[in-house]
Amino acid sequence: MSLILAISIIFHLLHSTKGQTDDDFFKICPPKKCGDEGPLIRFPFRLDSQPRSCYGDGYELSCSGNTTLLNLPWSGNFTVTAIDYLRGTITIKGGDSWSKCPLQGYRSLNFTNSIITPSLRVFSLVGCPRDISWNIPNEIVGPISCLNNDPNQSIYAVSDDVTIDEMPDVCTKISDFHGFPYFFSGCTSACAIDKLMKTSEVELEVFKNHEYCFQCEEKGKFCGLNYMMNKTVCVEVGGNDAEIAKKLAIVALWCVQCNPADRPCMSRVINMLEGDLQSLSMPPNPFA
User: Which tens digit of pLDDT belongs to each residue from 269-278?
Assistant: First the structure.
């Protein structure tokens, strides 16, 4: 068997199937990155350059150079700094419009027709005289100077865990706002607001069918789609391109051994292709 014929057979075996297997999804929709430092983009997300079948509308991300972007239909593009597939969240960072007052920027977001599911957590904005002295509880963030136009007043964001009665009598509620997320790992709701104010980042819940994917991700596997079955599947995703190329090369070298007795049969070739790279041994050097 010639080397060219052996490699052709191997590629044919790798790419020909009678029907879609669960891991075929990641052959069509392999994980991608926007630059070396960007978050890994995989199901349920896809890059806008990938086939639409990699997932539905609303889950498209795009690359601007090395930056990963999420578009909210009514609010524009936001930088994606992290995706947590185990917890079903995505972390976005506001742009220049958030730089002066990230909390105000977040409050202006419109999630209509987006995949984002904001939490229903309620916070109150409370105004207190600037010159009072008091011990600020952990669930109160402030003073938030960018929300305040009154030089004699300080504005605080107060979690619904805290009642107005726990604040000084001279403080008054200004307004409520709903839907602030607080998913940052190990972070309370007040901590999440504080993080937003310092970094312009906010973590949002995003995945549908997350209970199934959570169980899959917890096992160290990836969630994907089986097109033929039209269902979410859980698959040890295969190795990267370099590993696949090395596996092909090793198997091809076995197939062209000068001694026919050293050449593997077709069933053995298939087993070698389906096995781990680490389980393959290098064939003898025919020119040694």
Answer: 877 776 667 7
- Is 238 strand, coil or helix? coil
For residues 70 and 77, the answer to whether their CB atoms sit within 8 Å is yes
C-beta of residue 153 within 8 angstroms of C-beta of residue 59: no
Between CA 180 and CA 193 the distance in angstroms is 8
Is the distance from CB of 21 to CB of 28 less than 8 angstroms? no
Alpha-carbon span 155 to 146, nearest angstrom: 9
Euclidean distance between CA atoms 125 and 278, whole angstroms:
59
d(CA 57, CA 165): 46
Q: What percent of the chain has pLDDT over 70?
A: 78
56-73 residue pLDDT tens: 667 899 999 999 999 988
What are 147's two structure tokens?
């929300």
Do the beta carbons of residue 188 and residue 181 sit within 8 Å?
no
Q: How far is CA 160 from CA 136, 156, 184, in A?
A: 15, 13, 18
